[in-house]
Design brief:
Helices cover 1% and strands 64% of the residues. By secondary structure, it is mainly β. The chain has a 22-stranded antiparallel β-barrel. The radius of gyration is 29 Å and the shape is globular.
Length: 794
């Protein structure tokens, strides 16, 4: 039972701490060149490291481990200076500032300089995972890789952290059109082969945007900086939907089986003198049974409808990233890079509607969705390193253009007639980001401060072409423009002593948002909001000893409505469910508390965290009907206060050279208080819901094997408990993943094979209570995939 309540490891990170300062004479305040600088242990007074000051009186000691030391400064003609120094693991650089020597006559012994091993440290606010170590998901997408990570679950194609989908996704520390600004999108179409590592940040500091109350996921692309020309090429192929899990309802087209997956990739790097140039290209082609949901709907008047929504999807996703680093001199570096992403999606779907015993087909809905998403991003970053090590100025500018070009065609086939609905959506998103960040190292920590400015414009246009017997609202189309302006300033102070660590930050953010609606729209009018809000963060930690630490966190964050959440255009979710946005949506503010404890022992560690979040004006989607119609309208609303409380545990142990494992669990309680809201579309009507509460969680068990002949294996088991969803709940589900890889060609090549959802058991089963109806659904979409691949480094 204990192992079922703990979760996977947080790997400690190697830290190379650099200690610096400047030595001056007391009376004249002139610098003292070539003074001897020695670092000794505080307990045994033994030599650890040494150096001399340069012509400007400055010194640097690199690769210093965490611990208590005596810093000794001496020079011929001056008295020796000694002071106590504690080196922690929260900062890469410590600056002891100015050290003054008094004039004297003395002679020094010879100084010997040695090199020390890097110390291992761990911050409890962030977990970092190397994608290459996730053998069971090698060759898959980023979304599939995340399913095996601690704290993460995937539901309806969206990532959740600790049961909350309000997650901000970054690429290389920046928001992009590939993954959404302040939201998440496209993760299932980013090849894992392009990614070096993934960071999960549950308690972000003030440096990060305030959006995303559940936390931040930072996806870091691969980049090599070895001297000369080098790179990596790879190819992965696979098959999914290996057999039919549930036969179609009568009279529709076949569902996809034996779906192919193809993923070639290349990464090139050339470094010589002051230039480091890089290029990375990834292409992912997949055929997928994207949806295969069987629904039984029960209406209050006694009517029962059986339906199936089947979607066969073809996806072409191309990512190209290139740029260069120009090291102008030892203190100045300029980086220019560009990213291009193209996502082409073709969906062909069927949705039949039958009566209770399937003897009568009431309707057949067939559709074609043709969608092209294009992203172009240009980035320029300048870094200035001051003479004092660790003192940095970073200036960055980022421009993103993201286009959505979507076309939909729906054939509505009834017993006596048929018609075709069509509509086209065009959205061009332009985002300008400017960042200025400054870091100042201190003797016991550092100060970080900076400013950020964002301008974001998204003009959209929806054109409807309704056919015979259409339920589509042709008067709800037309143009709409989303405009967002966000200046922000932040400050962050980090302190570390022998027993205590502290991090105090404050981000001040101003937001001005306008949503301009087509004045001829039959329901909605232009709307928006603005606010000036502080977003503090705090971390206080006590180090019991070298192997045990306890930390307390506080964070205040916000979730601003996404542009797609406020779009005025009604859009088919299926033939009888219409999604529509709400331009009156307002931000959701969240406060969170967390208490964490971490302990290490030989070849293992345990991490435990208790957390509690409460949000005001919770944003959720409401499904309701209007009198005289069976159409369900799903509209976003600000409802009542919601709560998310739980415990996360991480346990890791290496048993021997052959076998190691990690188990992680997250158990939580979600609650949304009772509420009543007014849905304005298609006509004004109220919807009420009682308080919803559920206890849920997940368990993940990763087993890693190191066999002889350079063969590694991994088996991962995942269990997801029942959970709350808008107006209902989703039942428990589980899966088992398997992966094997072998190193060949003297370590330059690698062969791998893996299988996702080996038992084909991951089936979401939902129960939804609506206004005037309720329904149950089982989605037998594609979850089982096998892959075979090869990588070669040169």
């Amino acid at each position: 039972m204990f192992f079922c309540l703990v979760t996977s490891t947080i790997w400690a990170q190697n830290k190379q701490v650099t200690v610096s300062g400047i030595v001056k004479e007391t009376k004249t305040n002139s610098t003292i060149p070539f003074a001897n600088v020695v670092l000794k242990t505080a307990t045994q007074n033994t030599f650890v490291a040494g150096t001399i000051t340069n012509e400007s009186g400055r010194f640097t000691l690199a690769h210093v481990k965490t611990g208590n030391y005596i810093l000794e400064i001496s020079s011929m003609g001056y008295t020796t200076h000694q002071e106590n120094l504690y080196v922690g693991n929260l900062s890469n650089f410590l600056d002891v500032k100015t050290i003054e020597l008094n004039a004297a006559i003395s002679t020094l012994n010879e100084v010997i300089v040695t090199k020390n091993n890097n110390t291992i440290s761990n911050k409890m606010d962030k977990k970092t995972f190397t994608v290459a170590e996730n053998i069971s998901q090698t060759g898959s997408s980023v979304l599939q890789v995340m399913q095996n990570l601690p704290s993460v679950t995937v539901q309806d194609g969206k990532v959740q952290l600790r049961g909350n989908d309000k997650v901000m996704v970054l690429i290389d520390g920046k928001q992009t059109g590939l993954t959404g600004f302040g939201s998440q999108s496209g993760l299932d179409n980013i090849p894992a082969s392009a990614i070096e590592k993934i960071e999960i940040i549950n308690n972000p500091s003030a440096k990060y945007d305030a959006n995303g109350n559940a936390g931040i996921i930072n996806i870091i692309y691969k980049q090599n900086k070895k001297e000369g020309f080098n790179g990596k090429v790879g190819f992965t192929s696979g098959l999914g939907a290996l057999w039919v899990r549930k036969e179609n309802l009568p009279s529709i087209r076949p569902q996809y089986t034996m779906t192919p997956k193809i993923n070639p990739s290349v990464a090139l790097n050339y470094k010589k003198n002051k230039i480091n140039a890089f290029f990375q290209g990834d292409y992912l082609y997949t055929e997928t049974l994207n949806k295969n949901e069987f629904v039984t709907r029960y209406y209050d008047d006694g009517d029962i409808i059986n339906s199936q929504l089947k979607r066969n999807r073809n996806t072409h996703f191309t990512t190209l990233k290139s740029g260069f680093d120009w090291n102008m001199d030892d203190q100045n570096t300029l980086t220019i890079s560009g990213l291009f992403g193209s996502e082409k999606i073709i969906d062909r779907g069927d949705q039949p509607f039958f009566n209770n015993d399937l003897s009568e087909r009431r309707r057949l809905w067939q559709f074609l969705e043709d969608e092209l998403k294009t992203t172009v991003m240009a980035t320029a970053t300048y870094q200035h390193k001051f003479k004092e090590p660790g003192r940095l100025l970073n200036v960055g500018f980022n421009y993103t253009f993201h286009r959505e070009d979507e076309k939909y065609f729906y054939d509505n086939i009834l017993s006596s007639s048929s018609g075709t609905d069509a509509f086209k959506l065009l959205s061009d998103e332009k985002v300008y980001d400017l960042n200025v960040d400054y870091t100042e190292p201190l003797k016991q920590g550092r100060i970080e401060t900076g400013i950020k400015f964002r301008k974001r414009d998204i003009p959209t246009n929806m054109e409807f072409r309704p056919g015979q017997n259409s339920v589509i609202d042709a008067n709800a189309g037309g143009p709409a423009t989303y405009k967002e302006l966000i200046p922000a300033v932040y400050g962050n102070y980090v302190f570390e002593s022998l027993k205590w660590e502290a991090e105090l930050g404050l981000r001040l953010e101003y937001v001005d948002l306008h949503y301009e609606v087509n004045p001829n729209h039959n329901t909605y009018k232009s709307d928006g909001y603005n606010y000036t809000q502080p977003f503090p963060n705090m971390r206080l930690a006590y180090k019991i000893n070298d192997d045990n630490k306890i930390s307390l966190f506080f964070n205040r964050r916000v979730d601003r409505p996404n542009e797609v959440d406020i779009r005025i255009f009604p859009k088919y979710d299926d033939a009888e469910i219409i999604k529509v946005g709400n331009p009156a949506l307002k931000p959701q503010f969240t406060n969170s508390l967390e208490l964490g404890y971490k302990t290490n022992w030989e070849k293992g560690n345990l991490y435990t965290a208790l957390y509690h979040r409460f949000a005001e004006g919770t944003i959720t989607r409401i499904s309701s009907t209007v009198p005289g119609s069976t159409i369900i309208y799903a509209t976003f609303q600000n409802v009542n206060t919601s709560y998310n409380s739980g415990i996360e545990m991480v346990f890791s142990q290496e048993i021997n050279q052959l076998y190691s494992f990690n188990i992680n669990t997250n158990a939580y309680r979600n609650q949304i208080n009772a509420f009543t809201v007014e849905n304005k579309y298609p006509s004004s009507h109220q919807f009420s819901a009682p308080t919803e509460t559920i206890f849920s969680g997940n368990i993940k068990w990763n087993n890693t094997f190191h066999f002889t002949k350079k063969i590694d294996g991994q088996v991962t088991a995942i269990y997801l408990a029942p959970d709350i969803i808008p107006q209902g709940k989703i039942q428990s589900r589980y899966s088992v993943d398997l992966g094997v890889k072998k190193s060949i060609q003297n370590g330059k090549g690698e062969l791998y094979f893996n299988a996702t959802d080996l038992l084909n058991s991951m089936v979401p089963r939902k129960q939804i209570q609506g206004d005037g109806f309720y329904y149950t659904s089982n989605d037998y979409y594609e979850t089982q995939v096998i892959r075979l691949g090869y990588h070669y480094k040169f």
